[in-house]
Amino acid sequence: MYSSKGLEILAICLDNNEDAIKSTTASFNLTYRVLYDRGGMTARAYNVTGIPLNLVVDKNGVIRYRNMGYDPSAIKSVIDKLL
Hints:
- By secondary structure, the protein is of the alpha+beta class.
- It is built from 3 helices and 4 strands.
- The protein has helices at 18-27, 41-45, 72-82, and strands at residues 10-13, 33-36, 53-57, 63-68.
C-alpha cells in the first residue's frame, strides 16, 4: 500500500524457534519480511520491554511512534502524516 512511497514494513521476532515463526507467519499470510532477532540485539537497541511492540521509524532512524499492543488506525495516522 505504501511501498511506492518508500515505506517498508518489517516484523522482528524474538522467538528462537524459526519453524514456529514460519508456521505462524504463513497462517497469517503476511506480505512483509519477518526478521529474527537472534541474541536480542535489536530488542535491546529499541528497549523492547514487552510484545507486541509497534514502532514507526523514519528514514533517519528516529522513532516517530511507539506503542505496546496493536492499534492499526493510530499507526496508519502516523504513517500518513510522515509520508
